[in-house]
Amino acid sequence: MSILLLAASLQAASPAAPAPAPAPAPASAAPAAGDALPEDWVTIPDDELLVFTLRGGGTVTVRLAAPYAPVHVANIRRLAAARWWDQGASVYRVQDNYVAQWGDATEKKPLPAGLVTPPPAEYDQPATGAGVAARLARRDPYAEGAGYSRDGWPLAGSGARQWVPHCYAMVGVARDLAPDTGSGAELYTVIGHAPRALDRNIAIVGRVVDGIERLSVLPRGTGELGFYKTEGERLPIVSARLASELPAAERPHFQYRRTDNARFRAWVASRENRAGPFFTVPAGGAEICAALPPVRRAP
Amino acid sequence: MSILLLAASLQAASPAAPAPAPAPAPASAAPAAGDALPEDWVTIPDDELLVFTLRGGGTVTVRLAAPYAPVHVANIRRLAAARWWDQGASVYRVQDNYVAQWGDATEKKPLPAGLVTPPPAEYDQPATGAGVAARLARRDPYAEGAGYSRDGWPLAGSGARQWVPHCYAMVGVARDLAPDTGSGAELYTVIGHAPRALDRNIAIVGRVVDGIERLSVLPRGTGELGFYKTEGERLPIVSARLASELPAAERPHFQYRRTDNARFRAWVASRENRAGPFFTVPAGGAEICAALPPVRRAP
């Protein structure tokens, strides 16, 4: 038994990680039907990337999902422009197999002017919106169907409504009991199995495209629900900036993969029926959070 | 907005954690239809619990799934009896949103006598086996259906076959390319979104019922596939013992919830349609890995 061979086999089975690029195939290998061509990668605009810098210098980069929660995302951009997260904000809750949550643990910091509070409940939207470019073969347990938007987001949908599902690394807006919708100041990301029951009950505003492991490895809070019991346990946030606010030389660049072509549909089919020397039984289906659309750092 | 209220709301939405007991309802509150009665909790036999002690004294306790992979589990019991993991074994791979893996990183340690190598491919079994006591309402993306065994395990099934799905905290046997099946010496547990494409392609031998957060917070390996690059990064395993091998005073005790009654079926329904002041849209369904059967420390 070779662990390294095992590992290489499992790699093919792993869900696409949010950030790392797939290793390019050797020039001698024939491309697979689901491989991306260079023109399949679309650069994410600078004002769609929100970069949180944590104490110690590590960063967590979020692609904002403006088309799916426009008022919440507008609030988030205003909070960043006002430097709201730059003083006193922290990661203050980490619950195993659930979420890491950040913002103002004291709940006392005033919000900047210009925010819409409360925002409307942007938990889903008409399915006539951004458009679904590819679909999964099987029914979704939480929706009539699931697939991929033209702008590189996972989508679930039932009837005439669609929404971005609560997958690993998705970013949502913490809120109180309904009808509260949250402001956008308190955010969380999923660090465990997708808590899809939250779909349509909370606003999804983005996806961590780089640095999720800076949150997923944090000590779990020993307070109720994973809250840190003491201020000293909290991980301070140093700053939050849209990439467009950073000096050009410091801007990170990420790309999503186009979903509206046969190569992407072949990629989806390859996730639904894994092949190769490791797998003996292809599933015939996949769940959307185990087949997230690829995002990579721009080469 | 109250973060604490928010948190309490999200708790109701969180997948059942592997180990913690649900908080008992106040005496004044009427029990919900899905609440367990004291007689619903079944104590797991001592020889079904395998306790790994890590450097520093933390433990990770695995409930072994002997009915679902009998030869692999027999190997694991022999490995523990031979103290195979007590010298030189470690957690040597941690890949974000995927697995933590442990055993002998050198691949050179001889296996004890008496192991069946290779074991048969115990990746699924006839559905006439342990019996399904409760079912989820909707189709599973990886199987025709999913539900709960009489002995407290999640199950997926298609046609005449059933298997334990690759959910968070499930323990599998690392292996090389098919037809290799692994020996049981190299194990992993899921620390991210369920990689269900592995279902029916690898042997599931247990579930971490306590201490998963001791693995899920470990630094992600910076080598390929999350392997630690240096020996110093590995987390040594001090010992692995069946609870039945421990002095009575040191044995941990865990219980699974009975699945073969109306109270459990009501609990399943409550996972499929979340209620309460937080949720505005119940899903009408749930995915098996987001509705794992409850396990708790014996009170």
UniProtKB/TrEMBL annotation, chains A, B:
InterPro entries: Cyclophilin-like_dom_sf, Cyclophilin-type_PPIase_dom. SUPFAM superfamilies: Cyclophilin-like (SSF50891). It comes from the Bacteria. GO terms for molecular function: peptidyl-prolyl cis-trans isomerase activity. Residues 58-242 form the PPIase cyclophilin-type domain. Keywords: Isomerase, Signal. The keyword Signal applies. Its EC number is 5.2.1.8. Coiled coil: none annotated. Residues 1-19 form the signal peptide. It holds the Pfam family Pro_isomerase. This is Peptidylprolyl isomerase. The lineage of its organism: Bacteria, Pseudomonadati, Pseudomonadota, Alphaproteobacteria, Sphingomonadales.
